[in-house]
Design a protein that fits this description.
Oligomer: heterodimer
Largest sheet of chain B: none
Number of domains of chain B: 1
Number of helices of chain B: 3
Order of helices and strands of chain B: HHH
Shape of chain A: globular
Largest sheet of chain A: none
Strand content of chain B: under 5%
Structural class of chain B: mainly alpha
Radius of gyration of chain B: 18 Å
Largest interface: A-B, 30 and 25 residues
Shape of chain B: flat
Radius of gyration of chain A: 23 Å
CATH class of chain B: Mainly Alpha
Structural class of chain A: mainly alpha
CATH superfamily of chain B: NADH-ubiquinone/plastoquinone oxidoreductase chain 6, subunit NuoJ
Number of domains of chain A: 1
CATH topology of chain B: Four Helix Bundle (Hemerythrin (Met), subunit A)
Chain lengths: 361, 97
Amino acid sequence: MDTLYTVLYDLSDWVLGLLAYIVDWTRLDFLSGLADWLVSEPVVVVVAVLLQALIYFVTLLLLGLCFIWMERKFLGRFMDRRGTQIGVLGFFQNFADGVKVVLKEHIVPKAADRGLFELAAFGILATSFMLLGCVPLSPQFYIIDVDLALLLGLAIFSFAPFSILVGGWASNNKYTLIGGMRAAAQLIALEIPLLLVVVSVVLMTGSLSFVGIVSWQQEHLWLAFPLFIGMLTFLVAGIGESERVPFDLPEAEAELVEGWQTEYGDVRWGLIMACDYLRAYIMCGLLTMMFLGGWDGPEFIWAEVWYLAKTFIVFFFFVWIRAAMVRIRTDQILMLGWKKLLPLAVVNLLVAVILKTAEVF
Amino acid sequence: MDLTTLIFLIFSGLTVGCAVMVLVSKDIVRSVVFLAATFIGVSIVYVFLNAEYLFLIQILVYVGAINVLILFGIMLTKRRMVGEEICETEAKGRWRP
């Protein structure tokens, strides 16, 4: 099967070969070694990897824009208004907003700790985009597929509370500090049930790579049926991890301005905002991959389309919950995380253990 | 010297440098950031030993949990904000960050 990488490898091999031929044809003395260098193995690999990263990055940014558009449009409809209006079905509103954000001035508060202020924004952006590389769209369309991909993704995800706390502190503002503390407390409280649910999935499928998990589900059945409790726990914890309503108290607008991102003004804020949606996408993607069979589906259309369709349906639930619920309090969120979701995750793990020891699958 | 050794030396040098900076740095939050860098550097040494699982667990536990715990500890105790006096509850009862 042709993966994205092999296709791009052939492409870059051909393009570099063409370039080398042109360089050879010019017969300039100072370019003599260049043609051989262009067609050498490391150069071709580097160009192929860069092309792969570029394609994945652009695809996912467009996907993020679709998520933002979907949320604005659907939320508008839920609230009985029209939502965004510019362009086809209001899709170009996001591009206009993006251009606006890019044109803004970069302001660092005078009292802020400048180095850490920039580092925190970099940390959250870099880890979010690294996270995207771990989640494949299909067995062909991926960046990396290592045996420990799921664990790698969760390890990268665990950088977030650290960056958020440091960013909230470095802005030197009481709103950002409180927002940062809330965000980190919430992320940690909900990460443990999340990880326990992941453990149950790993136990059932016996694999830590996404391709392995999905192929197990293609062989047997979607894990949403045996591990239904786990799926609901993951859904609630996932909404909390991506800091969306009703768990958006880190950036509760009415009390904390914009939470820990208050002092970020320019394109950094725009990218952090896009990252929020990309993290929501990651959560939807993980849920799809672990419980809804990933790219499993009848083969008359591409596997990527099945995967993205399921992801968008899960995100529709996210938006629906956002439209229907009100924000909950800090003590309630900790109560929910530690006293409700953690026992549910343990019960789910028990179900997985019983199913595995009874050798049902 | 082959490339692997060179990369290993660069990363171990960075790790040791960050570990020294934890002690030298005046600002305690900066110390924690350097501590995180040290942990990441140690985890990269595990990659060179072909122990990928240990590398991921090191990041998950030390950077994701221990460091955040230390940061929480710092922020819940009396501290000096950047260029300000020690934060205290004033007599009026108004909380000053």
